[in-house]
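User: Quick sanity check before I run a bigger batch. Here is a single chain. Can you write out its predicted 3D structure?
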Amino acid sequence: MKAVVHNVYGDADVLHIDEVPKPTVKPNQVLVRVRAAGVDRGAWHMMTGLPLVARLGLGLRAPRNRIPGLDLAGVVEAVGEQVTDFAVGDEVFGEGSSSWAEYARAKPGRLLHKPAHLSFEQAAAIPTSGATALHMLTPKSTQSTREVLVIGAGGGVGSFTVILARSQGDHVTAVCSTAKIDAVRRFGADRVIDYTSEPLTGSYDLIVDIGGNRPLSTLRALLKPTGTLSLAGGENGGRFFGGLERSLQAFATTPFIKQKLRAPIVIAGRDDLAALTDIESPLGSTYPLSEAATAMRELAAGRITGKTVLTMPADTD
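Assistant: Done. Predicted structure follows.
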């Protein structure tokens, strides 16, 4: 089968199409014929091996897993003997492993039957970014409208966060670059701040910071005395730890203050997927599998708005 592979760490130039063996399923796995696969920062970390501390899991000198990708949508090709929830021919979406390929394996607990109203491309855009956004938004304790600030609102997690916050009645101030303002308004933001020309102002019940690396002191100054700060990403951090230093600082600080600082680690499960099927999927651009390197260059340069997915031909063998 065809797959996107990389034998070394690096930028998008290390990605290329290769022929690799078709996976076989274990008793507790599902084999999916992939129709669309999500592009996100997780794949970028796998490709670059950054931050360096991540190589403890990814492989010290070279990637253990040569095929990137988690999010997928497609058709069940085979099921292990212990799998009872899915059958060959079912249309599914969720998280698997090595999804930038014509076939990928997944655990049943991380898949859901694809609703008919979602295309494969829309469904593949949902799992990782949508579930992360879901967990970035803390539950509302009352029916009152919260003031929510979303930093990095033009990307995958950010766009889902804006959509979800508006769907539950929050007032959303979104922060993005100039090129993404119109799209972020379409996602439902009540107010948009262009970070290239405007300072961050206001007082917020909840701040969701995605992919930035602003100091905690800056963010806490924008947060109400008992507000919550949710952190995700931090790609502009140091080469060794990336944004982990800021998350660790948040964990160390939050027991001693009234504000709540958090950095959830999210793995999309069935409940998450089910909660996301009825919202608008912020699908932006699509690329064929053969142009995965182009998609990653656009992601790394910050030029992707919403979610981008890779697509496979329907007649995959």
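The CA atoms of residues 37 and 132 lie 17 Å apart.

User: Great, the batch can go ahead then.
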